[in-house]
Amino acid sequence: MQRGAGIILALALTACGSADRPDATPATTEGTTPDAAAEAADTVPDAPVAATDAGPTGFELGSVPVSDRVLGAFPFIALPDGYEAINEQTLNLARVPFWTGDRLEEVEGKAYLATLQAREDHAYSDLELERNIQHVIEQAGGVRITDSAIAPDILQAVPRDVRKNLVDGWGDVYNNPVQTYVIRTAERTVWLHLCADSAGAGLMIVEAQPFEATASLLPADRLKREIEAHGKVAMQVNFAVDKADILPGSMPQIEQVADLMANDPALQLAIHGHTDASGDAVHNQMLSESRAESVVAALVKRGIDASRLQAKGFGQSEPVADNATGDGRAKNRRVELVRI
């Protein structure tokens, strides 16, 4: 993790526990004993909490206040003096589960994972590390949403491949509590996971990918003209992130396709699903197939005979725009209606 990036978070970390803050608890230093660190925990006020660790209604992201602080470059924080990150990974797009106190919330976006440890010339203190992270998040206007253990049955339900991919950043979540923080600004939402034990800690930071609304309604008559002229028509249908669930805002478009087919009983359509090039190609292929099948299922539910429909997925193999730009990726995430 890069240090001294010239951002408010990095500056706040190095200032944590400074003498000019009367309400601060001094950070532990080399030679501090575990007992002394444990005693200091009782003197440090807890970070603001957006929701109870297991409240009756569960955590809601909307309960986190919006901060006006300016964040710098990803991954936004610098480590306190005496600590270093090993086994670092930065992924342009990943899905990471964050513990909210009542569930694991899957967050998709740019991700940073690392294992934290003390440098050779510094005595490790989990309290020192936790308090520094707490302080820097507070300075950025973020809040801690939980400091609790992940329920064993929830941990067991996490797929093995997910646990394997997160090993460097998750820490020993089986034997230690997890601290989860969220920073919301007008431009971004940042999630941070810290799981510290007596020897080190797992750290995960994800800048959540903002939802990009790309769907625009194509009425049935326009769909018909495009199909008659070109044999197909492309439309952007919005799905849940990395899933095949059609979002409610795209249902009017599905209704228009159903009207088109209801008014032309001889029309048969192949529903082609396409993705952008973010992530794994094999995964994108399966996702495109599932999304095409979801559209077919939605049309059948609206009275269209299944024998008039086919579902096919093409993954990222047939882009119509540059995947290097956000606008291009939005155009590539599309559904095509192709006349059979």
UniProtKB/TrEMBL annotation:
The cellular component terms of Gene Ontology attached to this UniProt record, alphabetical and capped at eight, are:
cell outer membrane
Q: Where is the composition biased (Low complexity)?
A: 24-41
Q: Residues in domain OmpA-like?
A: 226-340
Quick one: where's region Disordered? Answer: 19-41
Q: Which PROSITE patterns match?
A: OMPA_2 (PS51123), PROKAR_LIPOPROTEIN (PS51257)
Q: Name the source's superkingdom.
A: Bacteria
Localization per record:
Cell outer membrane
Q: Which keywords does this chain's UniProt record carry?
A: Cell outer membrane, Membrane
Name of one Pfam family that matches: OmpA
Q: What is its main location?
A: membrane
Q: What is this protein called?
A: OmpA family protein
Q: What is the lineage of its organism?
A: Bacteria, Pseudomonadati, Pseudomonadota, Gammaproteobacteria, Lysobacterales
